[in-house]
Write a structure and sequence with these properties.
The chain is of the alpha+beta class. The chain has 15 helices and twelve strands. The protein has helices spanning 2-13, 19-23, 53-68, 88-98, 116-130, 156-161, 163-167, 172-182, 187-206, 246-249, 283-289, 313-325, 342-352, 365-368, 375-390; strands spanning 30-37, 41-42, 77-81, 106-110, 135-143, 217-222, 229-234, 272-282, 295-304, 334-337, 394-401, 405-413. Residues 30-284 form the Thiolase N-terminal domain.
Amino acid sequence: MASERLNSILNHFKMPSGLAAVTSRNPDDIVVTFAARTPLTKAFKGGLKDTPVDYLLMQLFQHVREKSRIDPKLVEDISVGNVNEPHIAYKARAAVLAAGFPNSTAVSSVNRFCSSGMMAIQGIANQISSGSIEIGLAAGVESMSRTPDLAPELAPEILSASQEAGDCLQPMGQTSENVGKDFNVPREAQDQFAAKSYQKAEHAQKSGWFDEEIVPITTKVKDPKSGEVKQVTVTADDGIRYGTTFESLSKIRPAFPKWGDKSTGGNSSQVTDGGAAVLLMKRSTAEKLGQPILAKFCGSTVVGLAPRIMGIGPSLAIPKLLGKFGLTKDDIDIFEINEAFASMAVYCLRELGLEEEKVNPRGGAIALGHPLGATGARQAATGLAEMRRQRKKVLVTSMCVGTGQGMAALWVNEVL
């Protein structure tokens, strides 16, 4: 009798399992009522290169407020994922207030490298689930033009205590070459994957698929030659290289010859400026307010792994996520896997046995760019828009994470 009671208690707290449970609709579900991103533009060259992060965030938050038609007084907390921006907590709070949210809306920042935008989403979802807040906004932003990534110094005692501690400082290009070498991912396979990313992104842009997910940003851009400053409205991604082929990529010299000869500027993610935001609340709240329910956010998970091969994170995070929800890869309609480097993307697809047509249908970070803190939220905006276009149901987003981590999240499209 006691064991039966214990099992009953454990089952009460057990996560719902299987496709039917994941796609079911309940009042306490965490749902997305709005998701959008800015254009992704080339760092140092593109349309957002002279745009401060706080100004970019302000316009993004204004779009959220206006397009979602949410009463800003109801948004209790905003979490902003970011990696390298100095004083981001000050800038995010100021941007929220400048965007028309009241001072009763709280703001915080979060950093887990490339998954920072996803961490912001999970953090807001956790607060809603626990009853701390009813409505929250998760965002991610990065200006790689204005804040180049500089690795810190570690104490000598840290470096002498653990080889893996020292490996946390390995440049990302080095970790890409480690993956290519350790797991036999040849240059040819990387260039073939990268060419397809560009081709998919080119097709998506020419077809207007990105229009639904992008909000325009009006800013000022300084001409590097004349010094003239012009006001422009940036409406589209500018890193997509039309006409890219395997043959053209195969001619590019290795980017990291010190560590290997497989990763290049053509088969690695672009350094990029941009941001994204996702509005979250319970289903019951959305229905009460008449907010459109775009998707259900089911949850996420994180993993750790050897820092020197950080790129393979999705190959560990995705199975862990699917296991938690009682799903298989065949239950998933679309995978958005961040293309930090083609080496890691090729390995992850091979290791997980994924069908290529299910992965990054609009192209990935190799073609679109990877604004570090924004990518987790950007994947949600892109993936959910593609789910609506294809009328598909279940989405997984995932990324590798600097210093040897991985993250994956599960979503259910409700606009069919």
